[in-house]
Amino acid sequence: MRDAFIELDGVEKVFDVWRRTGFMKRERHRVRAVDSLSFTVARGEMVGYIGPNGAGKSTTIKMLTGILTPSGGRLRVAGVDPSRERMRLAHRIGVVFGQRTTLWWDLPLIDSYRLMHRMYRIPAARYRENLERLTELLDLGGLLDVPVRQLSLGQRMRGDIAAALLHDPEVLYLDEPTIGLDVVSRTRVRDFLRRLNAERATTVLLTTHDLRDIEQLCSRVMVIDHGRLVYDGALAGLHEAGESERTLVVDLERELPPIEAPAPARVVRVEGPRQWLAFPASASAAELVAKVAARYPLVDLSVREPDIEAVIARMLGPSGGAPEPPQERAGRTPS
Fold first, then answer.
1. Residue span of the structural domain in which 130 resides
2. Is 63 left (phi over 0), alpha (psi -120 to 50) or beta?
3. Structure confidence by residue, pLDDT tens digits, 31-74
4. Residue 188: per-residue pLDDT
5. 3-class SS at 31?
6. Are residues 22 and 92 in the same domain?
7. What domain count does the chain have?
8. 318: exposed, middle or buried (C-beta count within 10 Å: 0-12, 13-18, 19+)?
9. DSSP H helical segments within 145-275, as ranges?
10. Is 232 exposed, middle or buried (0-12, 13-18, 19+ CB in 10 A)?
């Protein structure tokens, strides 16, 4: 058994929520955000931690960092209780919240890093070495003197990741680090995280709504729903459990009858010269693309990944919580 760096055993988190029931009257309700959660993450693992909005993902991360205290159960990070020894643990962890920044809004990026240099008491030589390495790997060279408020979302996110790693943390918590990023920025962030994990053996716990983040970075995925762990294993197993499907979008030169796709692929939608073909997410798209291209006049095609909440909803069945539509997620704070 490998060194268990993160350990949760029967962890619970309950919030008291007051609701108005009448004039000058309120009633207390208990909301169980995390319910008997147990898992371990080995040192050096990169694990995807996913689930629908309200599942308890961010609550878990806040307990792992010591921001919140568990209502019950046992929690350890590197052998330390985060809520009891938060300051001691702070030097061993890094945190990036995709919709919040740890950078000072009106200061140039380099000034935020200098402040963190002093806050974490990073030795001067180590700080200079880390800053130079992170600046190069995250392509921040031309941004260090730019005020944070003038950075694009992708630039700020790369700046936040660098800030979280200046003190060489042993574990990195990433809460939606690619939300709202363009394709180029997503690729840069993913490439950097892959290299960080390979070269420095940094333990990474990643929450995201984008299955491509998980597919490209994580060998293991955990699914949480209503505060409970409902799946822990490989992404392929999640696709099989949820019977998820990818979609091949085909643009033809002209309008044609539905494509005769090899089973188990099937046409699910036709609009003029554009057709949508669904096929199992665990299957390779290459064979299907080759057969369609050999028989039909193509202009363009693309592969769309399954929506992560739809996969979870199908895996849980009728008893699972219904996911929110994708368009309702954009402005919401992830759970």
1. 4-240
2. alpha
3. 999 999 999 999 999 999 998 888 899 899 999 999 999 999 99
4. 86
5. strand
6. yes
7. 2
8. exposed
9. 153-165, 183-200, 211-217, 235-242
10. middle
- Same domain? 14 vs 38: yes
**What would the two tokens of residue 331 be?**
């402005």
pLDDT surpasses 50 at 300: yes
Alpha-carbon torsion 6, 11, 16, 19, what sign? positive
Structure tokens at 89: 């643990």
Query: Beta strand pairing status for 46-50 and 72-77?
Result: unpaired
Q: pLDDT digit string (tens) for 257-287?
A: 999 988 889 999 999 999 999 998 877 888 8
Q: Which residue has the tokens 């060194």?
A: 3
In residues, how long is the chain? 335
Does residue 46 lie within any of the structural domains? yes
Cis check for the bond before 264: say yes or no (omega within 30 of 0).
yes
Read off the pTM. 0.77
Separation of first and last alpha carbons in the chain: 31
